[in-house]
Model the fold of this input.
Amino acid sequence: MAALTQVARSMPYSTGGNLSNLRPEARADLMRIGLRSGHAVGVYQTTEGAHNDPRHNGTSANHPEWNSASLSGLGVDVNQIDGVDIGSYANANPEAAGLVESVKNAAESVSGVRTVLGPSGHTKSNQYGGARTGRSFSGSLKDQHQSHFHITFYRATERN
Ligand SMILES: [Zn+2]
Done:
């Protein structure tokens, strides 16, 4: 019974994002993040909205030269964990700090996760399963991501 409860709590859920628009490899990795953290992530955007990272819907709002339909369905924005709001613009929710840390650590441990950009930092791996390094995290980029995690995934053809 405890195991079943654990799996259910780890299931990603939608707070507005259409999870069926994610590629299967991205959905599987989102599940891994849930299982490894023991927490369920609430996704408010997958392919919805305008983003700079083309891994949401294949287009970049600020770098059209990055546009590629082959990257669509490989990004999520997570604004809740276990039903707790992560924060608002420029203000992380202190009551979510432990949940945020758990999800960050779990996401950074998954080989197929490329970028993890959330309230406490920004890291990116150099390739599938590769070394992860800290990236720029200040100003408006930091302020924007106090309200959510932006997590992206490698597509199947990038995994070998
Ligand atoms: Zn995003």
In short: The chain has one domain: 2-158. Helices lie at 2-10, 24-37, 97-109, 139-144. Residues 24-37 form the longest helix (14 residues). The two ends are 36 Å apart (CA to CA).
